[in-house]
Amino acid sequence: MTKITIDTNTKQWTATSVRKALAQAFKVLNATTGPVGHKRLKSAMPEYQYSAADIAEQQHMELAARRRGETTMAKRRAAMIKPNSHEISRSDLILFGRNGRKPWLKLVAAYPDHQRELIAAVLGAAKGHSARMVARRMGVAESTFRLHINFAAATIAKQLNRAGIERW
After folding, report:
1. Do 96 and 134 form a contact (C-beta atoms < 8 A)?
2. Which end of the chain is more exposed for a tag (fewer CB within 10 A), N or C?
3. 33-46 mean pLDDT
4. Helix 142-163 vs helix 131-138: angle between axes, to the nearest 10 degrees?
5. pTM of the model
6. For the segment 53-97, what is each residue's pLDDT rounded down to a tens digit?
7. How far apart are CA 10 and CA 166, in angstroms?
8. How far is Cα 35 from Cα 23, in angstroms, rounded to an integer?
C-alpha cells in the first residue's frame, strides 16, 4: 500500500493563497491611497485601519497606564506601519496587472457573480470581517458564498500556475 503525501510547501498557487494575496493587495491599496475629492470630504479620509494585534496591544498599554496612575491612551491610536515598495509593487501587479498580464480579478471576468463575491470576500478579509458576515450582508447563503469564492480563487490559481508565476 502506498502512502500519498501532499507537499504544502510547493510554489504553486492555491485558492487560499490567492485569496490571501488579494486581501493583502487591498490592504496595501487602502494604506497607500490618499484622500480624493472635494476639500471638505478629504478631511474625513483616509479611513484608519487597525489590525487586531494593534488594538490588543493598545488596550494592554492602556491598562498598564491606568495601573501606574497615568492618563489613559483611549483617544490615541498607534499608527499602522506603511507598506514597503516590494509590497506596493506586488499589490499593483495583482490589482492592475503589469507587462501584458491582466489584473487577477479579470481572470474570472467570465463569472461576474463569482467575481463580485470574491471581491467582497477579500475586501472583507482586508478589513478583518469574516466570510459569514460578508455573505450575510450580501444576502447570499454562506455555503453558496464560500463555494463561489473558492471557485473564483481556484480559477485564478490555475491560470497563475499555467502562466508559471511562482507563489510568494
Report:
1. no
2. N
3. 56
4. 110
5. 0.69
6. 777 887 888 888 778 776 655 545 445 567 888 999 999 999 999
7. 9
8. 21
Interatomic CA distance for residues 25 and 158, integer angstroms: 19
Instruction: Kindly indicate the confidence band of residue 7, based on its pLDDT and cuts at 50, 70 and 90.
Output: very low
d(CA 106, CA 93): 12
| d(C-alpha 146, C-alpha 9), whole Å | 24
Residue 24, pLDDT > 90, answer yes
d(CA 30, CA 11): 27
CA distances from 72 to 49, 59, 65, 79, 105 (A): 21, 10, 6, 17, 44
- Dist CA 17 CA 165 (whole Å): 13
List residues bridging with 101 in a β-sheet.
98
Cis ω for the linkage preceding 35 (within 30 of 0): no
The amino acid at residue 103 is: P
CB-based contacts of 9, cutoff 8 Å, min separation 6: none
Grid cell, residue 118, equals: 470574491
Cα 25 from Cα 19, distance rounded (Å) = 10
Closest alpha carbon to 148 in 103, 123, 122, 111? 111
